[in-house]
Amino acid sequence: MSKNTVNIIIDGVEIEAQEGQTILQAADDAGVYIPRLCYLKGLIPGGHCRVCTVKVNGRPASSCTFPVSEGLVIENDTEELTTLRRTVVEMLFAEGNHVCPACEASGNCELQAMAYRLGMLAVTLPFLRKPRELDATHPDVFIDRDRCILCGRCARASEAEGKRVFGFEGRGINKRIAVDGEHGLKETDLKAADRAARACPTGCLRLKRIGWKVPVGQRQYDTTPIGSDIEQKQPVG
Amino acid sequence: MSDDYRKVVQEIVAKFGKDRKRLMDIARAVHAKTGHISEEIVGAIADALGCHRVEVRDMTSFYAFFSREPKGATTIRLCNAVVERMKGMDAVANAFEETLGIRFGETTPDGLISLEYTPCIGMSDQAPAALVNGKVLTNIRPEDVKSIVDAVRSGKLHDGGIVSVKSVESNLQQAGPVIFAPFERGAGIRKALSMSPEDVINEMNKARVRGRGGAGFPLAMKWSFCRKAEGEAHYVVCNGDEGEPGTFKDRVILTECPDLMFEGMTIAGYAVGAKQGFFYLRGEYEYLLPYLEQVLAKRRRMGLLGENVCGAEGFDFDIRIQMGAGAYICGEESALIESLEGKRGAPRDRPPFPVQKGYLDRPTSVNNVETLCCAARIMEHGAEWFSSMGTKDSTGTKLLSISGDCQAPGVYEVEYGITVEKVLEMVGATDAQAVQIGGPSGQCIAPKDFGRSICFEDLPTGGSTIIFGKDRDLLACMESFLEFFVEESCGWCAPCRAGTTFLKMQFEKLLQGRGTREDLKKLEETANTVKFMSRCGLGQTAPNPVLTTLRNFPALYEARIQPDDFIPAFDLKEALKEACSITGQKPHDVEV
Ligand SMILES: Cc1cc2nc3c(=O)[nH]c(=O)nc-3n(C[C@H](O)[C@H](O)[C@H](O)COP(=O)(O)O)c2cc1C
Ligand code: SF4
Ligand code: SF4
Ligand code: FES
Predict the structure, then answer these.
(1) Per-window interface: B 567-586 vs A, CB < 8 A
(2) Cα nearest neighbour of B494 on chain A
(3) Angstroms from A119 CA to nearest CA on chain B
(4) In B, which residues are within 8 Å of A175 by CB distance?
(5) What is the pTM for the complete model shown?
(6) Residue where a domain stops, chosen among B161, B185, B220
(7) Do the Cβ atoms of A48 and B492 come within 8 Å?
(8) Within an 8 Å CB–CB cutoff, is residue B125 touching chain A?
């Protein structure tokens, strides 16, 4: 063990982690998949979705924000946690308005893929059906807030690239994703090539004119479950 | 936009040194002048500060006291906390609606008065109460409403123009030896300055004093972590957000002995090595601000604040009061710090803790008002004196804010370890069916538990104590708590943002007698998910009204459950009524 590494235990298996990493990053490197929605590699974590919640020494914590330290004992792939995560994913479905069969993101959508992975069969919570605004003012990008899960990835990506195109607005159940323009996205300096325009896990923030290019059935999660890329990785060390 | 707005904004922003961190003060000052913060005003603030409009909107749209649309010149905010409802809020609300000819959420056509509801404003002992442009009216009766409205209309409200309605009483019912005993200004500070900061912390350790804000974290440990953490500067924050429904003990401290609290903050500053302290005061207590500023000014004159405090070479310390703007979550320490930095009050993930990375990512010790008062007293009288009171793990006294069905609501200073029974006797509550310990985020206990004691080892509490008499519909009271959490969830994380709403919907279905055993199971599952998965203490405790009554009052639930396997969430016949009447079909054609 070099001096910058620590050992942690995930589901009974000891893995080596780099000091300064979060639990989720260390698990990724070791080929252990922890479900997540609002984490995006390279961005500071936001801690919004809580789907990455694990038990750290017996207590719940979001693995995308929790730093590793020597000897942490972590539970990840347990029935208890899968059930809790599934219920949160179900809440996201019922909170928004997700019509998968008609959504351009279907098959590439991380929310949908997560529901499959966690074994969600139907939404049993009452749909909220709150009105949300659509913004199609930008020439190349549109926002359909019905599909927004408020993961903040667009906002953090934008900040990371030195802009501030997105932010939040309102609080509680009335919180929405907001843009840095008085009358919509067209007044912002968002470019289609920005990472922020491509950071969205769902069908909310999409590029125009590329819809349905890849047919349903051949999309990313149509063929492999979400998380496969990480699980196929060879463990480090 | 009108150039007037732009000018107003520019002047205010300049007054606060174009400092982005002071956005709370800027937004408050602008709102006080313009009555709202529209998108145009958001843009003007952003321009004047040289930041993005989305940042300003992000912040201003978060706080309940900032309105996006123009409102009446005066906003009457009637408190709709559970105790106010118990004490006749509905009749007062009706009187307002009738007198003004508008509904809640509306503004009179002449643009003079808006009516709104607001969660607990810290007056449960004098309910029903309302906030009128910063002024607090208490013990309002329906027959007072007309004179209130007349006084607002004639502009006399703020110069004592109404006599029939009371303003806030201190309502200290029982003083104890720690908080409400006579004290000499500066005695605690001088004692502290005669010792090393480490020894001051050690004295707190010997006193075994724990935080009074709810979590009960040992004070000495917090100060010691903060002192040892590296940073360009260290800060002390006193948490006066007091938003838990049913609590008002900080209000009484701030009325009776704010000096003691400022004394405690100064000692904290010395102990952790801070030069700057912040006192975060909830927006609802704005009426106390002028008095508190006077007290601070006096302390500066007396050399108890400022450079070389009490003549101690090199110990400089001062305090700034930061007002809030209507957000319960800003009582959570990391959300409070975000708010202090001029942002929305969204909590942070931990670690790092505020003692490591707090205000401006520098080591910050956040403490409750009452905790800091204890610290000042411990300096004055010593650890032994303090720890001789209370129990082994809960030393000293505790302030209880007692309201609801009892003869003498108010603040009581009691020794830790007192039983609930004793408390009920003390306040003259003879027919309690339940007591809410620690407010909605705490627990609802039944008579079988009245023999238990108030202390960290048994029934911990921030002080809110709400008594429900035998005729109250207890589950309806719990519903109002759930509604509170829906309103106050910050919305940052999914399980709390969405989960609190689902919890309330599922609970309502049960209350309406439309729930089955299956629904009860679902309700419990939602409650457990919100509790386990939420990011901060708000979400982690929001399901407690459900979970603790499920545990302590199962019969109330059994009584409302239907024997059917499944009942839809809505009444199908009722929902189809309109369509049926339009198409001329008979509703009974629908199979339910
Ligand atoms: C939703 C929420 C609201 C809170 N409100 C308050 C409050 O109004 N006052 C307070 O002192 N602590 C409050 N707390 C606790 C603070 O986060 C923090 O623990 C406390 O201020 C620390 O001070 P203490 O150690 O002196 O108790 C709240 C916590 C949560 C989760
Ligand atoms: S628009 Fe997409 S990326 Fe942005 S917060 Fe919503 S779901 Fe997340
Ligand atoms: S638990 Fe609630 S209040 Fe706390 S961060 Fe999550 S949404 Fe905000
Ligand atoms: S991935 Fe960790 S909270 Fe969303």
Answers:
(1) 569
(2) A49
(3) 16
(4) 491-492, 497
(5) 0.95
(6) B161
(7) yes
(8) no
**Which residues on A lie below 8 Å from B339 (Cβ)?**
none
B chain contacts of residue A171, beta-carbon cutoff 8 Å: 61-62, 327, 344, 489-491
ipTM of the modeled complex = 0.96
Domain end call among B435, B470, B505: B470
The H-or-E segment that residue B497 falls in is helix B494-497
Report how far residue B265's alpha carbon sits from residue A209's, in angstroms, rounded to the nearest whole number. Answer: 60
Q: Same domain, yes or no, for B41 and B179?
A: no
| pLDDT for position B570 | 74
Question: From ligand 1's centre to the CA of B214, what distance in Å?
Answer: 6
CB-CB neighbors (< 8 A) of A170 in chain B: 61-62, 491
Q: Kindly identify the ligand whose nearest atom is closest to the C-alpha of B494.
A: 3
The token duo for B486 is 């829906």
What residues does B364 pair with on adjacent strands? B235
CA distance to partner chain A, nearest, from residue B282 (Å): 18
Residue B191 belongs to a domain: yes
Q: Do B41 and B9 meet the contact criterion of CB atoms below 8 Å apart?
A: yes
For residue A23, give the nearest of A54, A60, A57 by alpha carbon: A54
At B524, list the tokens. 């419990």
3-class secondary structure per residue, chain A? CCCCEEEEEECCEEEEEECCCEHHHHHHHCCCCCCCCCCCCCCCCCCCCCCCEEEECCEEEECCCCECCCCCEEECCCHHHHHHHHHHHHHHHHHCCCCHHHCCCCCCCHHHHHHHHCCCCCCCCCCCCCCCCEECCCCCEEEEHHHCCCCCHHHHHHHHCCCCCEEEECCHHHCEEEECCCCCHHHCCCCCCCCHHHCCCCCCEEECCCCCCCCCCCCHHHHCCCCHHHHCCCCCC
From the CA of B540, the nearest ligand is 3
Tokens for B173? Answer: 């019912």
Contact B494 A94 (CB under 8 A): no
Residues facing B281 on adjacent strands? B240, B323
> Ligand 3 mean position to B485 CA, how many Å?
10
Torsion of Cα atoms, A116 then A117 then A123 then A127, to 10°: -100
CB of residue A74 inside a 6 A radius of ligand 4: no
> Which residue carries 């201003």 as its tokens?
B60
Residues B149 and B72: their CA atoms lie apart, in Å, by 13
Is B494 near chain A, with CB under 8 Å? yes
Which protein residue's CA is at the shortest distance from atom 7 of ligand 2?
A148
pLDDT of residue B587: 65
Contact A168 B535 (CB under 8 A): no
Q: Is B432 in the same domain as B460?
A: yes
User: How confident is the model at residue B161, as a pLDDT?
Assistant: 43
A66–B351 C-beta distance less than 8 A: yes
Q: Is B526 on the interface with A (CB under 8 A)?
A: yes
The alpha-helical segments, DSSP class H, found in B115-272 are 145-153, 187-193, 197-207, 219-228, 249-256, 258-272
B256 and B135 fall within a common domain: no
CA-nearest residue for atom 3, ligand 2, is A200
Q: pLDDT averaged over consecutive 10-residue blocks of chain A (237 residues)? A: 84 96 97 98 97 98 98 98 98 95 94 98 93 95 97 98 97 98 97 97 95 91 95 68
B53, B351, B505: residue with CB nearest A126: B505
What are the CB-based long-range contacts (under 8 Å, 24+) for B89-95? B89/B127, B89/B128, B91/B142, B92/B128, B92/B130, B92/B140, B92/B141, B92/B142, B92/B145, B94/B142, B95/B142, B95/B143, B95/B145, B95/B146
What range defines the domain where residue B140 resides? 78-161
Q: What are the start and end residues of each CATH 3.30.70.20 domain in chain A?
A: 86-207
Does residue B550 line the site of ligand 3, with CB under 6 A? no
Residue A234 is predicted with a pLDDT of 62
The domain A86-207 having CATH identifier 3.30.70.20: the answer here is yes
